[in-house]
Design brief:
By secondary structure, the protein is an alpha+beta fold. The chain has helices at residues 4-9, 39-50, 123-137, 150-169, 175-182, 201-208, 212-222, 238-248, 265-278, and strands at residues 20-24, 28-34, 65-75, 83-84, 89-100, 107-109, 111-114, 143-144, 196-200, 226-228, 231-237. The strands form three sheets. Strands 1, 2, 3, 4, 5 and 7 form a six-stranded antiparallel β-sheet that branches. Strand 10 and strand 11 (231-237) form a beta hairpin.
Length: 296
């Protein structure tokens, strides 16, 4: 655009960013936007993703979806930038993921997009990690909508490996806190120091928020699955897990800052209530799978 007036005519007058802030760290922030409350905004997100995702099909029937918009942060330096007057922070749109408010197949992610200039900076992994953290806070398990693209499969396999390894080592952050509130019983404690631990598939699913079938796939992929009295169990010493980490070159660290989560129990219950109220209406069709998350 050659003239400032032309640019200003295309600037949306509504406040930016929209929605409820659910996560924030030193460099990024995530906002939850209801597709039913901000229909045009979310439709534009879907149309934008169509430029990069060939199999994207849902554009307008988005009332049954929640959109989680990821923004990068930096101090506001230019006049007219997308900034928040409260903290003088300039936000830049990086990408987003969407999920159904109520999914029969327990999908916690329907579509994910990271814009090309921001790929290779682990933003895709950050979105995947946040999708599972929100799932754990709801006290359930989930996973991406199937089938996955090849790039999406590699991104998710990388996350599943890290999360499972952390759970087996007893260092999965926040897992005990979420389970205490959502499940009402004490589970595996990260402070416990033992030479060997026995895990069931259901216990690993509870700790990580990952669906049992995905947990099963990851354990088989890592060669950590065994049977005991006809049941699948994992009974592994720490040195065995460390050997797997070294052999498979797994980075057990997470991209997100767990202290940045800003969704407490009250807001989560409010979100779940909204989802239940939407169940009475017609269900919208599924959107397409992830194909543009970076696999860092």
């Amino acid at each position: 655009m050659r003239h400032r007036e032309t640019l200003d005519s295309h600037v949306c007058p509504d406040p930016f960013p929209r929605g409820r802030r659910v996560y924030e760290d030193a460099t990024s922030a995530l906002f939850e936007v209801d597709g039913k409350a901000h229909t045009l905004y979310c439709q534009n997100l879907c149309l934008l993703s169509k430029l990069f995702l060939d199999q994207k099909t849902i554009y307008y029937d988005i009332g049954g979806f929640l959109f989680y918009v990821l923004l990068s942060k930096q101090p506001a330096t230019t006049v007219g930038s997308f900034s928040s007057p409260a903290d003088a922070t300039e936000y830049t749109f990086v990408g987003y993921f969407s999920k159904e408010k109520s999914s029969v197949e327990r999908n916690n992610l329907a579509c994910i997009l990271v814009l090309p200039p921001f790929r290779g900076q682990s933003y895709g992994q950050l979105l995947i990690e946040l999708s599972y953290e929100l799932t754990k806070m709801e006290g359930t398990t989930g996973g991406p909508e199937q089938p996955l693209s090849s790039q999406g499969f590699h991104s998710y396999r990388s996350y599943w490996r890290r999360a499972i390894v952390q759970a087996l080592l007893g260092v999965l952050p926040q897992a005990e806190k979420y389970l205490r509130h959502s499940c009402g019983r004490k589970q595996h404690t990260s402070e416990a120091v033992v030479e060997q631990r026995v895990f069931s598939l259901s216990r690993l699913a509870q700790l990580t928020g990952i669906r049992i079938e995905d947990v099963l796939f990851t354990l088989e992929d890592l060669g950590l699955l065994g049977t005991w009295y006809g049941k699948h169990v994992v009974c592994i010493a720490d040195d065995t897990i460390q050997q797997v980490i070294s052999t498979r070159r797994i980075n057990p660290g997470m991209r997100m800052d767990f202290s940045g989560l800003q969704v407490d129990n009250d807001t989560m219950q409010e979100s779940l209530s909204e989802q239940e109220s939407d169940d009475s209406g017609p269900n919208s069709s599924n959107s397409d799978n992830e194909s543009s998350a970076d696999s860092s």
